[in-house]
Amino acid sequence: MNGTDRQSRHLGVHIDRTVDDVYAYASDPANLPAWAHGLGSSIEKVEDRWVAERSPLGRVTVAFAPRNELGVLDHDVTLPSGETVHNPVRVIVSGRGSEVVFTLRRQPGTSDADFERDADTVAADLARLKELLESAGEGASSSEVPNASGSRRPGSGSR
Questions:
Q1: H-helix or E-strand containing 113?
Q2: Nearest C-alpha neighbor of 60 from the set 72, 43, 37, 36
Q3: Whose CA, among 54, 106, 140, 148, lies 20 to 30 Å from 38?
Q4: Strand partners, 39
Q5: Is residue 156 part of a domain?
């Protein structure tokens, strides 16, 4: 493994919503298709796992860290090969709003072009999350933000 295999990049976005609002929405795996297109256009709970059948990488499973008061949205993505990629994500206070920071880790053997493409995908996903949450309007609860089908889901609540 050479030095570039260990490279990480922190990608972040400021969102004009509270940490509780951002965390409540982003931590619900059912909302992923609305903003995290890098994981595909649909996800469903199968037994005790969240599965994205049509991700750009093929069938993947996603497992989030347990809900917590620290804004930790870490998640593991298990690829069709069985390899699991750990993705550190944090929601932190930023003034009157929040910042979502995703740490993209370069996987062994990833070319410069592929790493840049991964970074662009994550940045686009974060921009989509910002747009969805801010377009719902100040004071709107996370349950009033549309999911992938465009409907609003009751009962997301806050953490």
A1: helix 112-135
A2: 43
A3: 140
A4: none
A5: no
* Strand 89-94 with 84-87, pairing: unpaired
Question: How many structural domains is the chain composed of?
Answer: 1
**What are the tokens at 69?**
């008061």
Residue 16 gets which letter from DSSP?
S
> Is 75 a member of any domain?
yes
Q: Return the CATH number at 88.
A: 3.30.530.20
131: in domain = yes
One-letter amino acid at 39 equals L
Cβ-based burial of 154 (10 A; exposed 0-12, middle 13-18, buried ≥19): exposed
Q: Residue 23's closest CA among 66, 53, 63?
A: 66
- Block residue for tokens 């994981």: 39
> Coil, strand, or helix at residue 32?
helix
